[in-house]
Amino acid sequence: xxxxxxxxxxxxxxxxxxxxxxxVKNNNRYIKRAPEVMVKVSGFGYNNAHTANHFDxxxxxxxxxxxxxxxxxxxxxxxxHQLAKDWNESDFQQRKRTRHSTxxxxxxxxGTEPKAVKQAVRAFAKTAFAENYQYVFALxxxxxxxxxxxxxxxxxxxxxxxxxxxxxxxxxxxxFACELERQGITAEATPRLKTISKLTSIKLCLDxxxxxxxx
Length: 215
Prior knowledge:
single chain; alpha+beta; 15% strand
């Protein structure tokens, strides 16, 4: 019996190693994980000049189209600068360090159809901002990941300012993923690892306390 057991162990050690991941990939039930969307607050504009410069940057100085919340498209640098002036606030200069605009970047991994990304951002922005805020956006395809720069004027039509409170970017990610799904693009907006880790720790703590109670 001992000799037979030793022969079996020797055979396992000398044979080819097959990893679990290989077996999973060969399994017909294996499903590739959907790509994660990204929605990031890339910065803020603190005056009209900042906003105008940002318009130049995202439009590549008029080489790329800017589209606003009404569907109007701006491309010539002169009209883009005029749009920035139209965002002017009469009492803005008296309030230093007040955020004039919020800059967002929404992107998807390599291989995603850029036009679908732009359409999803258009629909997302309309839902999230169009009722109360002015904004412009531009599609960039100069990197492996197609992405859209979205700039929102912080002062709303109702006189209230946009405040990016904690948790709001995750809501935006979920809305963006939903709009991508409507475009036929599979996408996920999984909460950040820190959040998942924190929830897992809480669950483990509760499980431990529960087990102590019922001992």
